[in-house]
Structure formats: structure tokens, C-alpha cells
Amino acid sequence: LKELFTRPGYMMREYLDGKRKAHFKPLSFVLVMAAVYSILYPNMPPDYSSTNASMQKSMEMMNVIMGHYALVELALIPLFATFTWLFLRKYGHNFAEHLVIQAFLSGQRILFNIVVLPFNLFGLEGTTVAASLLFVAYGATMIVAFVQLYRDRPIVQLMVRILAALGLFFFILLFGSIAFGVYLAVRTGAG
Question: What would the pLDDT profile of 2-16 be if each residue is shown by its tens digit?
Fold first, then answer.
């Protein structure tokens, strides 16, 4: 587990190269992290009592989403893998290997969320601080992982490809979320 945070790309490279005995299985890891998060989150829900009524409604919706965060993270592994594979496929890893890479990174992101769960107890301010920390941690660890994994590639070209993959992923995710929200609003008669 320590290697996933201190040298994630090297650890993933070893795993993909067949040195699996010393490492945990990526699917088992992400499932265990998802289970732990799913057990802990209901016991540390954010406290939005100090927010105004309109903000409280938005925060309650966010609370529902975060209550299912681990499931969302699991469901997004193939989508994340698709985009990293599309932009990094010429670097020698196939789609199945990108699924493995994304499973490790997904488990890492879920573990980050577990670590910052106590911030929820400090209300909106604590949750906002935690979200900011998570955003920075996600980006930094993903970039470090890919730079280490593809250490023999030109770093500028690699960074452009990683950022393009992430940008397209988040654009598709945002567009899909908006479309789903519109669908729900129309379906429930709220729109």
C-alpha cells in the first residue's frame, strides 16, 4: 500500500511486468477501499446545518452523490481506462492493462476520500477544504503515477497526453452529468 503512494508508477509497472506476488491485486484493492468508504461515509456525513435553505438543498444532493461515491468510482474505471488508453496507447499498454492502472488509481482516490472523511464533521467549510485537497491530490498522484510508469518517454509530450485524456474525460463526465440532470428534471416534472 505504501508503494502506491510513494512510487505508484513504478509499482504499477512491476505489476504489469508480472511481478505480482509482492503487490495486492488491483480489483481486490479497489473493492476493499470501496467497501470501507461505503461503511464509513454514513457515519461521517457532512453537516450543512449552518447553510441557507437553497444551499442546503444543493448540499443534500451532493451528499447523496457522495454517499454513492465508491460505486461511481468503480463504474468510472472503464471510462477512465478508455481515455488513458486512447491517449497513451502508443506507449505500449493495452486496454486491459489500462483497466489495471485505473483500478489502482481508483483505489487510491477512494483511500484519499476515506482519509479526508473527518473533514465532513466541520460543516461546509471542512467539506470545501477536503474537496480542494482531494482535487489537488488526485491530479498530482495521477500525474506522478504516469510519469513514473512511462519514465522513458518525453515528459512534456506525456504531460500533454495525460492532461488531454483527463480533460476529455471530465468534459464527457460533465456533459453526461448535465444530460442526466436534465433527464431527471424532465422526468420528475421539476423542469
Answer: 888 788 889 999 889
C-alpha cell at 70: 465508491
Higher local confidence (pLDDT), 190 or 16: 16
Task: Tell me the three cell numbers of residue 93.
Answer: 499498454
